[in-house]
UniProtKB/TrEMBL annotation:
Ion transport in keyword set: no
Taxon lineage: Bacteria, Bacillati, Actinomycetota, Actinomycetes, Micrococcales
Keywords of the record: Kinase, Transferase
Superkingdom in the source lineage: Bacteria
NCBIfam families: PPK2_rel_1
Domain Polyphosphate kinase-2-related, first and last residues per copy: 40-259
UniProt-recorded Gene Ontology molecular function terms: kinase activity; phosphotransferase activity, phosphate group as acceptor
Protein name (record): Polyphosphate kinase 2 family protein
Pfam families in the cross-refs: PPK2
Biological-process GO terms, alphabetical: polyphosphate metabolic process
Length: 335
C-alpha cells in the first residue's frame, strides 16, 4: 500500500445492514477513507495498474480454458455517476477484456421475452470483465415505481433474481453489485448543471424531473432491493456518491479485490517448453537466434522484477484496511 490508504476495509462497511435506513445515510460520506480527495486520486492510479495486470491474467485464463469472469453491476438514479464509473473502469483496463452493456427501456423484441433474457445474453464470457450500466434490477425498480407490472409480478422477481445470480456465480462469475446513492440535493444540483452548461445540455431529459418527483418511492424500491437481494453469493455494496472521487475509489477497490480473490496466475502451457524452443530454433538463422537470446537476457530480469512487484501489490491489496480494518467494519450505516 502507498502512503495513504483505506483505514478500514470498505467491503464490509458498504454492505447493507439488515436494518439499513436509507434516509439516514450521509451520501457525502467516505466510509473507510479519511485521507481526502487528492490521496484518493493517487491511490486509484496505483490501483489501476494492479487492476490492469489482474485483468490481463483473467483474460489469459479465459483464453486457455478457464471459466472465470467478473460482472460489475452498476445501479443508481439519474446523475448518480453510473456513466462516469463505467468510463473510468473501462479506462483502466484493456477494453478488449471488457464486455459493456447499458440497459435502457426494453426494445420491442426484448419485451417479447422474459425480463432476464436480455441480461443472460449480455453476461461476460470467460476471461472478461462484464460491466452493466443499469441491469435486471430495473425490473424491480423502475418497473415497480412506474407501475409497469403489478405488485405480485415484481415482488416475485427478488427470489428469481437471487436464483439467477446464484447460477451465474456457480458458473464461475464473480458478481460485484454496486448501488451509487446520491442525495436529493446533489441530484438537483447535477441536473441543474445539465441545463446551465451548453456542453451538458444534451444529457437533459425532461422525464428526469418526473422521476425525481418520485424520489421516496425510488428510495423505498432501492431499500427493498438491498433487503431481498444482498446474498452471500452476490452481495450489494451501497456506495455514497455525492463525492464522485469517493465513488470511483470505492468501485475501483471493490473490483480490484474481486480480481485479487480469484488468485490468478498465468496459465500453465499444455506443451513442453524445451520441445517448442527446439522446434522453433530449428527454423531460425544463427543470427536471429543470437538476437533472441540477447533480448531474453535483457528482458527477463525486468519481467521477474515486475512479477515480484505484482505479487507484492496483490499481497498488500489482500490486506486492505490494515490490522484495524480486515473484516471488522460495521455494515452500511457508514458510521
Ligand atoms: P442513463 O440515465 O442511465 O444515463 P439515459 O437517460 O441515456 O441513461 P437510456 O440509457 O436510453 O437513457 O435508458 C435508461 C432508461 O431506461 C432509464 O430511465 C431506465 O429506468 C429505463 N429502463 C431500463 N431498464 C428498464 C426496464 N427493464 N423497464 C423499463 N425501463 C427501463
Amino acid at each position: 500500500m502507498g502512503a495513504a490508504g483505506w483505514h478500514q476495509d470498505p467491503r464490509p462497511l458498504l454492505r447493507p445492514a439488515p436494518d439499513l435506513d436509507l434516509a439516514a445515510l450521509d451520501r457525502g460520506a467516505t466510509p473507510g477513507w479519511d485521507a481526502g480527495k487528492d490521496a484518493a486520486e493517487e491511490y486509484v492510479v496505483e490501483r489501476g495498474r494492479l487492476l490492469s495486470e489482474l485483468q490481463e491474467r483473467l483474460f489469459a485464463d479465459g483464453r486457455t480454458g478457464g471459466r472465470r469472469a467478473v460482472l460489475l453491476v452498476v445501479q443508481g438514479l439519474d446523475t448518480a455517476g453510473k456513466g462516469g464509473i463505467v468510463r473510468h473502469v473501462i479506462g483502466m483496463v484493456d477494453p478488449q477484456g471488457v464486455a459493456l452493456r447499458a440497459f435502457g427501456v426494453p426494445t420491442a423484441e426484448e419485451r417479447r421475452h422474459h425480463y432476464l433474457w436480455r441480461v443472460r445474453r449480455a453476461l461476460p464470457g470467460p476471461g472478461l470483465i462484464g460491466v452493466f450500466d443499469r441491469s435486471h434490477y430495473e425490473d424491480v425498480l423502475v418497473a415497480r415505481v412506474e407501475g409497469l407490472v403489478k405488485e405480485w409480478v415484481w415482488s416475485r422477481r427478488y427470489a428469481e433474481i437471487n436464483r439467477f445470480e446464484r447460477e451465474i456465480v456457480d458458473g464461475g462469475t464473480t458478481v460485484v453489485k454496486v448501488a451509487l446513492l446520491v442525495s436529493r440535493d446533489e441530484q438537483g444540483v447535477r441536473l441543474m448543471e445539465r441545463l446551465d452548461r451548453p456542453d451538458k445540455r444534451w444529457k437533459w431529459n425532461p422525464g428526469d424531473v418526473d422521476t425525481r418527483a418520485k424520489w421516496d418511492a425510488y428510495q423505498q424500491a432501492y431499500a427493498d432491493v438491498f433487503t431481498h437481494t444482498s446474498t452471500d453469493a452476490a452481495p450489494w455494496h451501497v456506495v455514497p456518491a455525492d463525492k464522485k472521487w469517493y465513488a470511483r475509489l470505492a468501485v475501483t477497490e471493490l473490483l480490484t479485490q474481486a480480481l485479487v480473490d480469484l488468485d490468478l496466475d498465468w496459465p500453465r502451457p499444455s506443451w513442453r517448453l524445451e520441445t517448442q524452443k527446439h522446434r522453433l530454433a530449428a527454423t531460425m538463422s544463427a543470427g536471429a537466434l543470437a538476437t533472441a537470446e540477447r533480448k531474453a537476457a535483457e528482458k527477463l530480469p525486468e519481467v521477474a522484477r515486475a512479477e515480484a512487484e505484482f505479487d507484492e501489490a496483490v499481497a498488500a491489496a489482500a490486506d486492505v484496511g490494515g490490522d484495524d480494518g480486515g473484516g471488522s467494519g460495521r455494515p452500511a450505516g457508514w458510521a
